[in-house]
Write a structure and sequence with these properties.
Elements (H helix, E strand, L loop, with lengths): L1 H18 L34 H4 L8
């Protein structure tokens, strides 16, 4: 039952993001093996390149050189 609630919470989160105009979503899920608290981190990037990618971070090397 808790697993179904977790799935529904993710669906609701994604529905809310897309309804507000978010065009790209990248999700990483980590299985918690300890009894620690859940954490949610959100990164936002102005533009169309992937959040956290070398293009978004400005670390793409110049391959022409």
């Amino acid at each position: 039952m808790a697993e179904e609630q977790d799935i529904q919470a993710i669906i609701d989160l994604l529905d809310g993001k897309t309804a507000s105009g978010v065009g790209r979503i990248h999700i990483e899920v980590e299985k918690q093996t300890t009894g620690g608290e859940e954490t949610v981190r959100e990164h936002y990037h102005h533009g169309r390149c992937d959040v956290g990618s070398p293009w978004a971070l400005g670390t793409v090397r110049n391959f022409d050189a």
